[in-house]
Design brief:
It is a multi-pass membrane protein. With 316 residues, this protein is mainly α. The protein has 14 helices and no strands.
C-alpha cells in the first residue's frame, strides 16, 4: 500500500480539528440561543470582531518586528482583505443564518455543504483538467455522509422555499469563496494575520446593522459568558485558522471536502454532551465521512502539482 504524505496528514488533521471545534461551538451557540436568548446576528458580530482582534494581538506578540499593518503596504491587499471579509467571512455566516430563518437548520446545512462542488468545478476549470477519480469518490462519500448525518435518512425535516434555496446556495458559494479567494494572502502573510484582519473588518462592517452594545433581552451569567468566550476563542478563532491554514498542505478541493466532516463532529458532540441516540443512517453517514478522509489521504502523484499551483489559480 502506498505510504501517505506526512504533509497531507498535517492538512487533514488541521481540517478535522477545525471541524471538531466548529461542531462543539455549534452546540454551544444553540444553547446560547435557546437558554440565554442570544441573538444570532449579535453573536456573529461579536465573535468576528473579538476573534479578529485577538488574532491580530497574537500576531503582534509573535512577530514583534513586523507591524500588523504590513499586509496593507500593497494597496491592492486592502481591496483583497475587504472583499475576503465581506464576501467570505460575513457572506458565509449571514447567508447561512438567513437560510435557517427562512427554512430550518437541516435544509440550510445541506445547501451550504454544496460548497465543495463549486470548489471542484472551479479548480477543474482553472487547472484545465477533470477532477481525479479519488476526488469524485471522496466528494460522493462526503455528500452522502453529510446528507445522512443531517437528515438521518429522512426527507421529512427538509423544508425548501425559494428564499431558502437562494440563501442556502449563496452560503454555499460564499463557503467555496472562503477557501479559494484568500490563498495568495495566506501564502504570503500567513493565516493569523489574514484571518485576523478578515474577521476584524467583518465585525466592523456588521456594526452599523447589529450593534454589539445593544444586548436586548440576552441573559448574561457566568455560564453564558464562558460559553460565549468558548465560541469566540475556539469555535471561531481557532477553527477558522486551522481550516484556512490547511491550505498550505492541501488543495482547496480537498480542504472543502474534508470540511464536510463538521456534521460528524456535531453528531459526536451531541452524543457525548446532549446524550443523543444515534440512528442506523447516522452510523452509515459517519462511515462515509471517515471513508472520505481515507480516500483523500492516498493522493495521486500529480495532486502535488495541484497543491503547488494553487496560489496561481486566482488573480485578484
Amino acid at each position: 500500500m502506498k505510504k501517505t504524505n506526512s504533509q497531507t496528514w498535517i492538512g487533514i488533521l488541521m481540517v478535522l480539528s477545525g471541524g471538531v471545534l466548529w461542531g462543539v461551538s455549534g452546540a454551544v451557540v444553540q444553547m446560547l440561543f435557546e437558554t440565554y436568548h442570544f441573538e444570532p446576528g449579535w453573536v456573529v458580530n461579536v465573535r468576528l470582531f473579538f476573534s479578529g482582534g485577538l488574532l491580530l494581538l497574537l500576531y503582534k506578540l509573535t512577530h514583534k518586528e513586523q507591524s500588523i499593518f504590513s499586509i496593507f503596504r500593497d494597496r491592492r491587499n486592502i481591496i483583497r482583505v475587504v472583499v475576503f471579509s465581506v464576501c467570505g467571512m460575513i457572506g458565509v455566516q449571514y447567508a447561512f443564518y438567513v437560510a435557517i430563518s427562512e427554512g430550518n437548520a437541516a435544509t440550510a446545512t445541506l445547501l451550504q455543504y454544496l460548497g465543495p462542488i463549486f470548489i471542484v468545478l472551479y479548480v477543474a476549470y482553472r487547472m484545465k483538467r477533470f477532477p481525479f477519480m479519488n476526488e469524485w469518490l471522496a466528494l460522493s462519500l462526503a455528500m452522502v455522509g453529510m446528507f445522512l448525518l443531517v437528515t438521518n435518512g429522512s426527507l421529512s425535516g427538509i423544508q425548501t422555499s425559494k428564499s431558502t434555496l437562494i440563501w442556502g446556495l449563496i452560503s454555499a458559494v460564499a463557503a467555496a469563496f472562503n477557501v479559494i479567494y484568500p490563498q495568495r494572502l495566506i501564502e504570503k502573510w500567513g493565516s493569523i494575520l489574514t484571518v485576523g484582519w478578515g474577521m476584524l473588518i467583518a465585525g466592523i462592517c456588521m456594526t452599523p446593522f447589529q450593534q454589539p452594545w445593544n444586548v436586548g433581552g440576552q441573559q448574561f451569567t457566568w455560564k453564558s459568558i464562558i460559553f460565549l468566550l468558548f465560541v469566540i476563542v475556539f469555535g471561531t478563532l481557532c477553527a477558522f485558522v486551522l481550516y484556512l491554514e490547511s491550505l498550505r498542505y492541501l488543495s482547496p478541493t480537498h480542504t472543502g471536502m474534508l470540511g464536510m466532516s463538521d456534521p460528524l463532529c456535531s453528531m459526536i458532540v451531541a452524543v457525548l454532551w446532549l446524550h443523543h441516540q444515534i440512528g442506523g443512517f447516522e452510523f452509515l453517514g459517519a462511515a462515509c465521512v471517515v471513508g472520505t478522509v481515507i480516500v483523500l489521504s492516498y493522493l495521486p502523484r500529480n495532486v502535488k502539482k495541484d497543491t503547488m499551483k494553487k496560489d496561481k489559480m486566482i488573480s485578484v
